[in-house]
Design a protein that fits this description.
The model has no long low-confidence stretch (mean pLDDT 93). It contains no helices and 7 strands. The chain is mostly beta strands and 71 residues long. Strand 4 and strand 5 form a beta hairpin. The strands form 2 sheets. The chain has a 5-stranded antiparallel β-sheet, with no helix packed on it. The protein has a two-stranded antiparallel sheet with strand order 1-2. Helices cover 0% and strands 30% of the residues.
Length: 71
């Protein structure tokens, strides 16, 4: 849900392991296929899209095809 989304990891993190997370206002550079200048939403399958899903979870705004500012 939108209340549970906190950001993106730079890599896969196993259960019980630690890792870095890009949170709100941070720039995550580990994406592919983003539409520059558009707001992206988290889809039910975990992918990102410029269209909303239900529930609507805003991921952030793409500043390039591989970078997103987390919102």
């Amino acid at each position: 849900t939108s209340e549970n989304f906190i950001g993106f990891t730079a890599e896969a993190i196993s259960n019980g392991a630690s890792g870095r997370i890009t949170v709100v206002t941070g720039v995550n550079e580990g994406q592919t296929g983003l539409t520059t200048g558009k707001k992206h939403y988290v889809q039910k399958n975990g992918s990102l899209s410029t269209t909303t899903d239900s529930p609507s979870v805003v991921a952030g705004n793409a500043v390039s095809s591989t970078k997103i500012i987390v919102s």
